[in-house]
Fold these 2 entries.
Entry 1:
Amino acid sequence: MQTSFSQAQLADPATASSEKILRACVHCGFCTATCPTYLLLGDELDSPRGRIYLIKDMLEGAKPASPAVVKHIDRCLSCLSCMTTCPSGVHYMHLVDHARAYIESTHRRPLADRLIRALIASVLPYPGRFRLALRAAKLGKPFLPLLRRIPSVGERLAAMLELAANVARARRSQKDARATTGPSAPKARVALLEGCAQPVLKPSINAAAMRLLARAGVEVVTAKGEGCCGALVHHMGRQAQAHALAARNIEAWHAEIERGLDAILITASGCGTTIKDYGFMFRNDRKLAEKAARVSAATKDISEYLVGLDLPAPARPMGLSVAYHSACSMQHGQKITEEPKKLLRAAGFIVKDVAEGHICCGSAGVYNILQPKLAGELRERKVGHIARTRAEVVATGNIGCITQIAKGFADRARAGGTAAPPVLHTVELLDWALGGPIPDGVTPAGSRGA
Ligand code: SF4
Ligand code: SF4
């Protein structure tokens, strides 16, 4: 694609990077076939190619983002399915990240939009505030029908409350969130991201990961000072906040790298995709560029790391059928497709692939709060495909997908009286197979729990 940026514009590193990306696009349109929003809306402007044109026009003209551009970029899930499909290697993720930051710095959103975004950005990345918000969400549940009637903001607030209440219900037992003792003579030393929303919603995930690692002789540390990776606000274009959160993690993990670290492990693939991109995000930061690159290079999804370990044989015969949902950030963002399935099979599970597996479930960070209608349509589509596998359990590697899919099944169960399969993180199933506690919702016989 031809571009016409001035030399002055190209002096800005973000614009220079986007210009290179734009030039790589050959307008072939292959990406439109695998874009979830194009699939739902059929509008070229809601396809990757259409958005690339809109971004090009906005950046070349150096003009404030128009409401039309904002609408179509906001509808993008950042699922990166287009990057998997593109034959020309167009780095859409970096382009849309730049566009989102540009929008936030040049466009004043309507008040309702500003309020909901400010609420998300000031609550979700901070576990203490998020815990309080979940309690408030429980109290606010009876007001959902009223809330939905408030124009513009009501529907999105209701979506937030519904998701939170659903997860709160799923957390009936935290028995498996017990601390675990590390190996006495460790073979390796890793840092495990504690993060922000996941430990509040489902602490059993990291507890399972720690037990798995301990069984394989790996010492696990939590880097002092680490926290939210910044992904949630990064995808909202809040660059300063995202960079501040990321910078804190880079310093914390770099200190551990200096002490001797084999890997930084992530149990939420949405976070992993962003942390693996810290090197790019801080490429022009004189103080942090090198440290950020080292952190990104050391980062691995938990499944990526576990597959290279000598895990013990399953402690019990499993034989349970598992529908594996590959999160977009796992398959498109990090190109990890086979590892989780390989681990599940080795642990004795029968893995079932889900039709249309490359299409997003609609979670996409906070997309299900900001775009509840589209997210709901994608969730229904995904849950339908999963249900058709008739698997007893659903496994995935991202807390956002767990929340989203569990809500879809819970809605179906309420409407039709059908049982909802437990939706679990892959490591919860692996840990159980290797001697850990039974995950919530699974019964010892393998059938569905309450
Ligand atoms: S990231 Fe996903 S939703 Fe956005 S343009 Fe690409 S395929 Fe479409
Ligand atoms: S597939 Fe790649 S090259 Fe083709 S239109 Fe989409 S982004 Fe451009």
Entry 2:
Amino acid sequence: MTDTPDTPATAPAPETPSAPETPAPAEARITVSKNGPYRIEGNFTIVDPEGNAYGLGGRTVISLCRCGLSANKPFCDGTHRHHGFMDDPAARDLPPKAS
Ligand code: FES
């Protein structure tokens, strides 16, 4: 009788940890970039005026144009860099909403 090992002759390769990813925040976060786009990350949906969602190809971070020059609106295509768009945003409080 031949001994049959309980384990395979070759052990399975250990799992290789994938590159660490920064988890997207649960709620959307919008960063107003200096001289650039709005960067949106987290849990969000972008819809057109009829409420149809844009397909984002699995992206969880996206940049929306705020210079008005993108050929791929509403998304930033980097054109702002070539046209001198300048805005140095700083967070501030809006006045109270009029009722
Ligand atoms: S902000 Fe990038 S193209 Fe407009």
